[in-house]
Amino acid sequence: MQRINAAEAARMMEALTAVVVGAGKAILGVNRAGMQVDGKSDGSPVTEADLAADRILTMGLRQTAPDIAIVSEEQVQALPPRDGSYFLVDPLDGTREFIAGRDEFTINVAIVSAGIAVLGIIAAPALGWIWRGIPGRGAERARITNGTIGAGEAIRCRPMPGFGKPWIAVVSRSHGDGEREAFITRRPNSVRHALGSAVKFCRIAEGGADIYPRLGPTSEWDIGAGCAIVTAAGGRVTSREGGEIRFGAGAPGFLVPGFIAWGDPRESLSSEFGI
């Protein structure tokens, strides 16, 4: 089975970034006030912006790497074999934020190889930022201005808060429960920042937050790019139990039971899970 290593992922990064920026321009060109909003079978919304971005991404990814399969939220198919490589795509993450007129929606593209996210790109076109990373090679963010990408700035997860200093936890506006709140409360002087979409992963990666717990089910395409970027920035994304996140294992509905993104995981994981 074809596998993509870090060097091969790096060679594709600029072309993939251009594809993602193009999809962002298409989303920004949609009139949110007059667009059509439909519902999927699971009750989640889908708009013409989701579908337009998906078309652009599919075409661009196929042109860039025609031999790599595409698994997109808007084109759900059977996953490729676990030992293979494929693109894992969310054309518009945070559709509810987009419909509500907020700017915290993103485009997420990852390359998964042998179950691991080996490249991640997250663009927030309305915020004018793009984040990208390859585990083992680092992560960066850059400004997007009128479809043009500025110079990249290296980013790194920040050290775990010292004794008595507040933990900053990024949390979803749309998804929350008592288990998540109890998890956060165990951190000294916790401060919660509510955000939409995969921007939460980016805040961890750039050192603006310490932890992002999502202890309920979520889809693989929501977290693939974020896992790669956080890992590339020196953090870690684990299962609820502290184990490794594996993609493409054939979970029903492409769901991950839950995860935790850690900014600086060394002491945190040791004290939390004993690993």
Topology:
Elements: H1 6-28, E1 37-39, E2 45-47, H2 48-64, E3 69-72, E4 85-93, H3 95-99, E5 106-113, E6 116-124, E7 129-134, E8 138-145, E9 148-149, E10 153-155, E11 168-172, H4 178-185, E12 191-195, H5 199-205, E13 211-214, E14 218-219, H6 220-232, E15 236-239, E16 255-256, E17 259-262, H7 265-273
Question: Tags for this entry?
Answer:
single chain, 275 residues, alpha+beta, eight-stranded mixed sheet, three-stranded antiparallel sheet, 7 helices, 29% strand, globular
Helix content: 25-40%
Mean pLDDT: 89
Distance between the termini: 32 Å
Oligomeric state as shown: single chain
DSSP summary: helix tally: 7
Unreliable stretches (pLDDT < 50, length at least 5) are none
Strand content: 25-35%
Class of secondary structure makeup: alpha+beta
Alpha carbon gyration radius: 18 Å
H/E element order = HEEHEEHEEEEEEEHEHEEHEEEH
Q: For the report, how would you describe the main beta sheet?
A: 8 strands, mixed
Shape: globular
Beta strand count: 17
Notes on the structure:
The chain has 275 residues and is of the alpha+beta class. The chain is built from seven helices and 17 strands. Strand 7 (129-134) and strand 8 form a beta hairpin. Helix 1 (6-28) runs antiparallel to helix 2 (48-64) and helix 5 (199-205) packs parallel to helix 6 (220-232). It is globular.
